[in-house]
Amino acid sequence: MENLITRHRNVSILVAVLFAQVLGLAVQVKRSANAEDTRLIRIWAVSAVTPFEKAVIWMQQGTGGMWHNYVYLRGVRAENRELKQEIERMRLEQVRLSEDAEQARRLQLLLGFKEKFISKTLAAQVIGSSGSEQSRSVYIDKGSKDGIEPDQAVLTADGVVGKVLHVYGSTSLVLLINDQSSGVGVILERSRLQGVLRGTPLGGVAVERVMNDESVQPGERVITSGGDQIFPKGLTIGTVSGVKAGADSFLNIIVKPAANLSKLEEVLVVTGVETKLPVPGEMAGRVRAVDVLSQRLPSVPDKPVVDPKKAAATPAVPAKTPVVTPRGTVFEGATPGTLGTPNGAAKPATFNPLPGMKPAGPGVTVPGKTLLAQPEALLPKTPPANANLNVKNSAGAPETTPPSQVPVGDVLKPATAATTTAAPGSVKPAVVQKPAVVPRSSAPAAKPEDKSAKPEPAPVEDKRQ
Amino acid sequence: MQILYTSQEQVEVYRFNLPVAVLVPLIALFLQGFIPLRFPFFAMFDLPLLVVIFFAVARRSQVAGLITGALIGLLQDSLTHQPIGIYGIAKTVVGYGASSLGVRIDVENVGARFLGTVFFYLVHEVIYFVVARGMVSLSVQWNWAHEFVAAVANAGVAVILFAVLDRLKQRA
Question: I want to staple A159 with a disulfide (CB 3.0 to 4.6 A). Which of A236, A289, A347, B16 is the partner?
C-alpha cells in the first residue's frame, strides 16, 4: 500500500486534496443556512482583495469629482433652471400624495393594520463583485463598524437591490435580487397578486407562485409585500416585462428590475425599520391639498355654528346600510350635512356658494344646506381607491349620497377621519361606493316611519366601475 | 516550500519568485471582482482560471499545479456567497491536468495555448456544474452556446495574458 502511494504520489496528493474539499463542502451543505457563520478563509480573502478595490474607487471618485465639480460645468445653469421647475411641480404632487397617504393611514388605523417605516438608512459605495456569473453579489464599503447587520435591505433610488448577506469589519456582501438563491415577497400592484421574486440562472428576475389562471399584464408594477420581514412593504422592484405559462400550473412572470443591477455604484442600506400603527394626526402640521386649493379660491366663509339640537331635527334621509369590514368595523364617511368620524360624531355642514360661482343646473336643496348640482369643478378628479362614502345624516342614520348631493364645502374642509379628500384640480365627484355588504336588517336604527324623512334617493352606481 | 515555486522537471521548467506567485493571483481576483462592476460582460471571463493554467503549465509540476489551483479556487469561492470548495475542486483538477499536459507538449506555441485554454475552460465548467448541481444542489443551467463562446473568449484573453506573464518567468 505504501509502495502504491509512493509510486503514484502526485495522484495520491490530488485525491487527498479533492477529498478534503469534498468533505468541507459536505459539512457546509449539511449545516443550515442560518447556522453558517463567517469562515476564516472568507475573512482572509475579503481582507486581501477589498483594500485594492477601495483604493481604486477612492482614486476614481477623486478624479471624477474634480472633473465634474470644478471643470466640466457646461449646461449647469440650464439644468438648474429645469430642476427648479421640476421641484415646483413635485411640490404640488407631494401635497396631493401626502393627502392620499394621510387618508390611507386613517383607513389602516381603522382596520388595525401595522405598517413598517424605514426610519434609518446608510449610504454605501459598491466596491466590488463576486466576479462570478453563478454568484450575483456585490461588496459595499460599509460593515459591522458602521452598524450594518445581516438581512438588512439594500436599495437605490430606483428600487430594491438586495439584502446584506455577510458582514465583515468594514465591508459587507450584498446578495442581489437576481441571484438564484435570493427570494423576495412581492405583490403585483394592480392585480394585488402575491408571489415570490427569484433570480434566474441567466441573471434575470421572475415572480413565482402565481397560479396559471390569474391574469397578469406586462407593464404592471411589482412592489415588495413585506411578508419576508426584510423588505418593508411598498418598495419598487420593477415592472412585468413578460408572462409565460410555467411548470406546475404556475405562471412564469418575467420582471425588469427598476434598479440597474449590473451597474451599481451607490446604494442605501436600511439600517432601521420601525413598526407602528399609523397615527392620523401626525400629518396635521403639514400642508394639505385642500388647504392649498382653498387658499387659491376667492374666499370660503367659515361655517356657521349649528345648534346640535337643530341639526338633529333636520329631516333624516332614509338609511342605507353602512359598510362593514371583515373585521366588523363599521365604515362611514362624508355625508351631505354631516361628516362621518370614527367615533360617530357628526359635523353639521353648510355650503355657501363662492362669489361668481354658479351652479350649472338646478341646485339640490336639503333643508339647512345649499348644494350644487354639479360640484365637479371643485371635487377631486379621482377619488381615492378606498374612499368610502357611506354616510350618516345628522340624526346618526347612515345614508347614501348621490354625487350631485355631495356637499362641496364640506369636502374642501380639512379632513377628519374617514372624510373624503382628494387631489386639487380634479374634476370627478367623489362617488359612493358599492351598496353595503350587510343585510338591510342589520343597519343601525333608521326611521322609515318618520314623516319628516325624505323619500330614499335611488342608489348611486359607482362610476368607477 | 520549494515545490510551490520551482518545478522538479528538467525541460522547459520555470519558476516564479514569491511576490509574483502571490500578487498575480491576488490581482487576478481583484480584477475579476472589480471590472464586472463597470463592464458586466466581463463576468464571462475567469482570470483566476487563466492564472492557474499559466502557473501550472510553466512549472510543469503536477503537485504544484494542483495546489496552486486549490488555493486560488478556494480564494475565489471565498468571495462568493456559495459554499467554499466548488471553484476549489474545479481548479484543483485543472491545475493538475494543465501541469500534466505541460510536461508532454510545447506550451509556448500560441495555438497550443489557445486550444489548451479552450479545453481546460470547458473541463473547469463541467466540473463546476457537476459539483454545484450534484453536491450543493445549486440550480445552475448548462448552455452549450454560452460555454463555447466563453471558452473561446477566455482563450483569446489567455494568449495575451500569457504573453505578458511570460516576462515574469525565471528559468529554473
Answer: A236
User: pTM here?
Assistant: 0.62
What class does CATH assign to A114-276?
mainly beta
Q: What is the pLDDT of residues A91-111, one digit of tens each?
A: 888 888 988 888 887 777 777
B30 vs A134: CB contact, 8 Å cut-off?
A: no
CA distance A323 to A346: 17
Give the chain A residue nearest B94 (alpha carbons): A14
- CB-CB neighbors (< 8 A) of B86 in chain A: 25
| Closest residue in chain A to residue B40, using alpha carbons only | A262
Q: How far is A73 from chain B (nearest CA, A)?
A: 24
Q: Which three cell numbers stand for residue A203?
A: 441573471
Element (H, E) at B32: helix B18-38
Q: Where are the domains of chain A?
A: 114-276, 286-465
Those residues whose C-beta lies under 8 Å from the C-beta of residue B37, and which sit 6 or more positions away, are A126, A128, A129, A138, A263, A264, A265
Does A129 sit within 8 Å of B84, measured CB to CB? no
pLDDT (tens digit, 9 = 90+) per residue, A163-219? Answer: 999 999 889 999 999 998 888 999 998 888 888 999 988 888 999 888 888 888 888
Domain ranges of chain B: 2-171
Chain A neighbors of B138, CB-CB under 8 A: 134, 180-181
The shortest C-alpha distance from B15 to chain A (Å) reads 19
For residue A210, the distance in angstroms to the closest alpha carbon of chain B comes to 20
Q: Out of B38, B63, B87, whose CB is closest to A10? A: B63
